[in-house]
């Protein structure tokens, strides 16, 4: 790809923006797929920075939410195994379920479901471990465990075991999952002391606080105010309608995944309103398309493979979604925008790949790249129009488990 790079495009992507939020030091998810989690927690820590003047390197514990996400995903998987136990192994739903029992990725609503149930803690209360930073081996053996358990549960259903026997068996399985996660990630805090020195050098100490109390006191966001908006210009998803995805989630009976599909022009207006009010924007995109990680540039003009191979490689956004060329692969945070005559030309992006890429970890995204490869925004409902608010209240259409809008970032 580098052999087709257009170096003139780089000059247009200077990291200077008319709206530029202060968001602190960039975090690093290392060799794990927790970008959605890092991005969400990065949006939330801004409140602590602005209100409590915590240091720029302050982070909320990604490992705490990671622990409970894996625990809840295991339970969610086993429940789906039971729901599909009457279907043959070669049914598409069962095959899809067994392909990846659980993984690192997720979506905004799934993070909200975790926080609503378990709260949140600072990184000092549950720091990273080897297996949270490098998750492949934990995922391998946890998925082996879950597939092993799926065999047992399907056999119990086939043998017409009692509901009580099945429930007891699944409870034992979840106890084993908890033990595995504790070995790999540590045991999650139930109470902890929050201690820090603020930017004015004042010392603060809050003793014996629970994760739920910490979220309510220090983060203090009404998660119900924030909704998922998508841009999927495919024929099967009319705009101004809501959608959910079958078998997508983590917390059983927790907050469901729900998307409102809007035109990209409307999404941009909402993102700009939120930035102008000092709030960053969680978003999901296909980060591997037309991007240079080292330079921190995402721009459709960056490479010209069509010219390199003398071949037409063009596809519309809808075609890329319908034919498997693109889907959401990575979540990041929009922290700025450059407006020229009121129109966006480029956007500032906080990534979670550490400070060695981009400009100390921050990327520049062209407006055209947003048009083509951004699929999801999370926006406070107060910025939506009355018509959009009404549309968001609709009962969602249920999409197939393998729909591209169900991709985990």
TrEMBL record:
Primary localisation category: cytoplasm
The alphabetical list of record keywords is: Aminopeptidase, Hydrolase, Protease, Thiol protease
Compartments, as annotated in UniProt: Cytoplasm
In its UniProt record, a GO molecular function of this protein is: cysteine-type aminopeptidase activity
Q: Where is the active site?
A: 35, 330, 351
This entry carries the following GO cellular component terms, namely: cytoplasm
Q: Which domain of life is it from?
A: Bacteria
Q: Looking at the keywords, is Zinc present?
A: no
Record keyword Flavoprotein present: no
The protein's matches in CDD domains, at most eight in alphabetical order, are given as:
Peptidase_C1B (cd00585)
Its GO biological process terms?
A: homocysteine catabolic process; proteolysis; response to toxic substance
Protein family per UniProt: Belongs to the peptidase C1 family.
Name of this protein: Aminopeptidase
**Source organism of the structure:** Lentilactobacillus buchneri subsp. silagei CD034
Its taxonomic path starts at: Bacteria, Bacillati, Bacillota, Bacilli, Lactobacillales
């Amino acid at each position: 790809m580098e052999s087709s790079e257009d170096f003139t495009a780089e000059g247009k992507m200077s990291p200077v923006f008319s709206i530029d939020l202060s968001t602190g030091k960039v975090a690093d998810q290392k060799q794990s797929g927790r970008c959605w989690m890092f991005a969400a927690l990065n949006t939330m820590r801004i409140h602590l920075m602005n209100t409590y003047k915590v240091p720029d390197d302050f982070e909320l514990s990604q490992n705490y939410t990671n622990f409970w996400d894996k625990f809840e995903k295991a339970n969610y998987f086993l429940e789906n195994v039971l729901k599909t136990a009457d279907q043959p192994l070669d049914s598409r739903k069962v095959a899809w379920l067994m392909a990846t029992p659980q993984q690192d990725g997720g979506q905004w609503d799934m993070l909200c479901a975790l926080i609503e149930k378990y709260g949140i803690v600072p990184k000092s209360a549950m720091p990273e471990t080897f297996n949270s930073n490098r998750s492949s081996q934990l995922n391998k053996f946890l998925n082996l465990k879950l597939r092993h358990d799926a065999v047992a549960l399907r056999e119990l259903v086939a043998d017409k075991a009692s509901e009580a026997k099945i429930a007891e068996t699944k409870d034992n399985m979840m106890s084993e999952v908890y033990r595995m996660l504790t070995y790999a990630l540590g045991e999650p805090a139930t109470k902890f002391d929050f201690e820090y020195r603020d930017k004015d050098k004042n010392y603060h100490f809050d003793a014996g606080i629970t994760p739920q109390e910490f979220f309510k006191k220090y983060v203090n966001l009404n998660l119900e105010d924030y909704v998922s908006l998508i841009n999927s210009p495919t024929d099967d998803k009319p705009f101004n309608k809501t959608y959910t995805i079958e078998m997508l989630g983590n917390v059983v009976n927790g907050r469901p995944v729900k998307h409102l599909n809007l035109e990209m022009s409307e999404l941009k207006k909402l993102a700009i309103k939120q930035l102008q009010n000092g709030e960053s924007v969680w978003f999901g995109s296909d980060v591997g398309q037309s991007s240079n990680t080292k330079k921190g540039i995402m721009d459709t003009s960056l490479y010209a493979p069509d010219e390199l191979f003398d071949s037409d490689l063009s596809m519309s956004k809808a075609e890329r979604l319908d034919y498997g060329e693109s889907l959401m692969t990575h979540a990041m945070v929009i922290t700025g925008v450059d407006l020229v005559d009121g129109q966006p030309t480029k956007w500032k992006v906080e990534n979670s790949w550490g400070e060695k890429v981009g400009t100390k970890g921050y990327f520049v995204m062209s407006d055209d790249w947003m048009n083509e490869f951004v699929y999801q925004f999370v926006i406070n409902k107060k910025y939506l129009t009355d018509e959009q608010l009404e549309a968001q209240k609709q009962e969602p259409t249920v999409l197939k488990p393998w729909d591209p809008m169900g991709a985990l970032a």
